[in-house]
Design brief:
- The complex is a heterodimer of chains A (118) and B (115).
- Chain A is 0% helix and 51% strand.
- Chain A is mainly β.
- In chain A, strands 2, 5, 6, 10, 11 and 12 form a six-stranded mixed beta sheet that branches. A four-stranded antiparallel beta sheet of chain A has the order 3-9-8-7, with no helix packed on it.
- The mean pLDDT of chain A is 92.
- Chain B is an all-beta fold.
- Chain B contains no helices and eleven strands.
- In chain B, strands 2, 4, 5, 6, 9, 10 and 11 form a seven-stranded mixed beta sheet that branches. Chain B has a four-stranded antiparallel beta sheet with strand order 1-3-8-7, with no helix packed on it.
- In chain B, strand 5 and strand 6 form a beta hairpin.
- Chain B starts with a strand and ends with a strand.
- The mean pLDDT of chain B is 91.
- The chains are: A mainly beta (118), B mainly beta (115).
- Chains A and B meet through strand 5, strand 6 and strand 11 of A and strand 5, strand 9 and strand 10 of B.
Chain lengths: 118, 115
């Protein structure tokens, strides 16, 4: 089974609308972390938001929020009031294991290409 | 600017050759990760070093090797290059903290083209 699944290869959204990017994950590790990264056309990877498996509240960072539904193993990214500069590739990723214990693994999804329409 | 630097930005070489990619992590970060991003394989974790020691291995080919030096910079060596090794190679760094919410800061990447 895929560790990280992003089912939307591409999305078109009108400027100023909210957008939800889907991500489901699969792990048997009780301690894990979920990340979202943005990759604009320039190629760099930009960290957006992080959610830990034991976090009680959904993570928020400015216009970004992570809709974490642990029982459903889903970690959707919500971007409020989308802007033209949000057009990019978005990757969901999962960290399993711990850096301290030397068994950390990071797996990325295949990404969703988001295009914001003026 | 993430604070992670990678050189060179672009590299064009022929099949069978060997190249070295260099990464300097953010100041204070002890952990360095290498990733390969290609059109057919997506973004794949290759290898991780922490304070000079190898910590985790992902889908790294035997033709590839890496090391982290005492000054914490890292090098990824790719040998006997094949056309399929053409990809964007990212380095990322992070600092080990007491909580799991550490993010990885990515460098701008090195685009390798094998002809």
């Amino acid at each position: 089974a895929q560790k990280i699944t992003q089912t939307q290869p591409g999305m078109f959204v009108q400027e100023k609308e909210a957008v939800t990017l889907d991500c489901t994950y699969d792990t048997s590790d009780p301690s894990y972390g979920l990340f979202w990264y943005k990759q604009p056309s320039s190629g760099e990877m930009i960290f957006l938001i992080y959610q830990g498996s034991y976090d009680q509240q959904n993570a928020t960072e400015g216009r970004y929020s992570l809709n974490f539904q642990k029982a459903r193993k889903s970690a959707n990214l919500v971007i409020s009031a989308s802007q033209l500069g949000d057009s990019a590739m978005y990757f969901c990723a999962m960290r399993e294991g711990w850096l301290s214990f030397g068994n950390e693994k990071l797996t990325f999804g295949t990404g969703t290409r988001l295009t914001i329409i003026p | 600017d993430s604070g992670v630097t990678q050189t060179p930005k672009h590299l064009i070489t022929a099949t069978g050759q060997r190249v070295t990619l260099r990464c300097s992590p953010r100041s204070g970060d002890l952990s360095v990760y290498w990733y390969q991003q290609s059109l057919d394989q997506g973004l794949q974790f290759l290898i991780q070093y922490y304070n000079g020691e190898e910590r985790a291995k992902g889908n790294i080919l035997e033709r590839f090797s890496a090391q982290q030096f005492p000054d914490l910079h890292s090098e990824l060596n790719l040998s006997s290059l094949e056309l399929g090794d053409s990809a964007l190679y990212f380095c990322a760094s992070s600092v080990e903290s007491g909580t799991p919410s550490y993010e990885q800061y990515f460098g701008p990447g090195t685009r390798l083209t094998v002809t």
